[in-house]
Design brief:
Elements lengths: L17 E2 L3 H12 L4 H8 L10 H12 L7 E3 L2 E2 L12 H7 L3 H10 L2 E7 L5 H12 L4 E8 L9 E10 L4 E4 L10 E4 H8 L2 E2 L4 E2 L1 E7 L8 E3 L6 H15 L8 H11 L8 E3 L15 H18 L2 H10 L18 H16 L10 E10 L7 E10 L2 E9 L20 H11 L11 H11 L6 H21 L13
Antiparallel strand pairs: 1-8, 2-3, 4-11, 5-6, 5-11, 6-7, 7-8, 9-10, 12-13, 14-15, 15-16
């Protein structure tokens, strides 16, 4: 049986492109370096990656830029390492669909926002070649901002159609941009005339009927997620998003709403059974690699912030109402953990490890398919600091085994496994629902007919009344939620602006 012939690279059409490794390409690099317009190149080249699938150019470009900006994804990639990979960028479009048809300009922007980056995006009909040149030059002079271009290969006489790649530098004298092509199996990095790149971006994407363009990606001034984050990996996320953004305002129009207690009772009785799959507890902790039972100063800092956020959630006035609502016999929410956070340690270890494995592997909602071997609860200390509780286990499913360590925050010192108490505080449905209600857009509550009740609820959920740390967490979740609404309503292509808080 004869082997089927495959494709090994392509010859780069030159002109118009100039191979980065050619004599002329090296000369352009040296001159641009001397002129200071290759500053961003070094961070990008340090994290340069090849797209793992023929249609993953948008995912590869974004994961490369996120890693170059040192944005912490807050969850594991493989082993103990937190690292952005294409497989982790699926909050706006299922990976299987991207693998088959690629991804649009708007949804790459959505992914960047969801990953915790700051993004400014422009289609070519919303900008000009002169503005584009200024942005390319600014990013090329800095390693705090990177530019991703969406363009059509045909303009450069290359095979293929729509493509994404980061811009790695700029030569002012020749007015040429360096494309760090993430399809390295096809074409090497290459220089192209900037005006020709603008023309290639000015083409129409046949899937959306809109112009292509470019995006500027940089870091936010704060961590994107401290304790909670939305999860869109479970297929039911659209129905939960619909409940939060569309159904709750309808429910609140009821004439039976006569007080704050009625508001939260109505919401709790209508919660989707899979509500907890939509918001996740970012509680991973990594031990020191040398095997000792201590935490690095960085991890200790993360633990302290997480504990503080949890404590602030439980000190809000809203938390008391949610606790009462979820304790009602009529509540349909499947509250896996008691609202008071008390349970036996072996059960906590088993459940948290299985749920954590599902989340970290990108398969939330299927924790019942996992089993745990050798679960345990341990304490770690850092330079005499407060003890930290971590549940650990070897998680097994049909794909094999993996070790999972999940942090269990304790807002009270007497709830540590290192103390004489046999109980431990852990996030429950009450914590999750409290934060999610705080994150809802303010206009959600305007549907309440009784003005006195509406003002009472507004005081309970007003973000400006929250401590700074929790306020940032809530605003981040609100931004994520509004982005997902754009996805659900198919408006990510029309609205490229960051989600309003």
């Amino acid at each position: 049986m004869a082997a089927m012939a495959g494709l090994y690279r392509r010859v780069l059409p030159s002109p118009p492109a100039i191979d980065f490794s050619s004599t002329e390409g090296k000369q352009l690099f040296a001159e641009a370096l001397m002129n200071g317009t290759m500053q961003g190149f070094f961070k990008l080249i340090s994290y340069f990656q090849t797209q793992s699938e023929p249609a993953y150019c948008g995912l590869a470009s974004l994961s490369m830029v996120l890693n170059a900006l040192a944005i912490d994804p807050g969850r594991k990639w493989k082993g103990p390492w937190r690292w952005f990979d294409e497989s982790m960028l699926d909050c706006c479009e299922p990976l299987e669909k991207v693998k088959e048809t690629g991804i649009s300009f708007g949804k790459v922007i959505c992914l960047a926002h969801c990953a915790g980056a700051k993004v400014k995006a422009f289609r070519t009909n919303q900008s000009s070649v002169d503005d584009f040149r200024k942005h390319v030059m600014a990013c090329s002079r800095s390693d705090d901002c990177h530019l991703i271009s969406s363009y059509h290969r045909g303009v450069f006489k290359q095979t293929g159609s729509g493509h994404f790649s980061p811009i790695g530098g700029y030569h002012a004298g020749k007015d040429m941009a360096l494309i760090l092509d993430v399809a390295r199996f096809k074409y090497p990095p290459h220089w192209v005339p900037l005006e020709l790149l603008w023309e290639a971006m000015g083409t129409i994407d046949q899937e959306t009927g809109l112009h292509r363009g470019f995006m500027l990606v940089s870091r936010l001034h704060r961590a994107p997620a401290l304790l909670y984050t939305l999860s869109c990996k479970h297929e039911s996320w659209t129905s939960v998003a619909k409940f939060l953004l569309d159904d709750i305002p309808v429910l609140l129009r009821s004439d039976s709403v006569e007080g704050a207690k009625d508001v939260f009772s109505i919401i709790s009785m209508s919660l989707p059974s899979n509500f907890e799959e939509f918001i996740k507890w970012v509680a991973e902790v990594r031990r020191s690699e040398d095997g000792d039972k201590s935490l690095s100063s960085e991890e200790q800092g993360r633990v302290a912030i997480k504990e503080e956020v949890l404590k602030q959630v439980q000190e809000t006035g809203l938390y008391k109402y949610v606790t009462a609502a979820l304790s009602s016999e009529n509540c349909v929410c499947c509250n896996k953990f008691p609202a008071n956070g008390i349970d036996c340690l072996p059960t906590i270890a088993f459940t948290v490890c299985c749920q954590g494995a599902g989340f970290l592997s990108g398969k939330s909602g299927v924790s019942n398919r996992y089993t745990c071997q050798g679960t345990g609860v341990r304490c770690y200390r850092s330079n005499g600091g407060k003890p930290v509780t971590v549940v650990s286990g070897i998680v097994v499913n049909e794909s094999g085994k993996d070790s999972v360590d999940m942090l269990v925050p304790s807002s009270q010192s007497n709830l540590s496994c290192c103390s004489s108490s046999s109980t431990v505080m852990h996030p429950s449905s009450t914590d999750v629902l409290t934060v999610m209600l705080l994150a809802l857009p303010p206009q959600t509550w305007s549907a309440i007919k009784d003005e006195k009740v509406m003002h009472e609820i507004s005081d309970l959920v007003e973000a400006n009344n929250l401590p700074n740390t929790l306020q940032e967490e809530v605003l981040h979740l609100r931004g994520q939620l509004l982005l997902l609404k754009r996805c659900k309503d198919n408006k990510v292509e029309e609205d490229l602006e960051p989600p309003p808080f």
